[in-house]
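Lab manual, section 2.4: Encoding a predicted structure.

Procedure: take the sequence of the chain (96 residues), apply the prediction step described in section 2.3, and record the output as structure tokens. A sample record is shown.
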Amino acid sequence: MSRISIDQVKHVANLARLAITEEEAQKFTTQLDAIISFAELLNEVDTDNVEPTSHVLDMKNVMREDIPGSGLPREEVLKNAPDQKDGQIKVPAIIE
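Recorded output:
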């Protein structure tokens, strides 16, 4: 017995804005049923003593200390600006 119907495959294709033929719908139904069957095998795995994780590796955020420092000199920054006015970088207006 199939775990997914042709109508469900067509519905998902429609939601994804995909035009599929009847032959494709039948093929995708068979393929998706096989994928679902494989995923259901995970229900048989004994996970009683397995701690939940979000990643398989023990990862931690390593951040440097936030120490303020001096920035670039204004003249150096403005040297690469395509347009400037009064010591500021001039950009096109986005709000009228």
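Check your result against the sample. The helical segments are 6-15, 22-40, 74-78.
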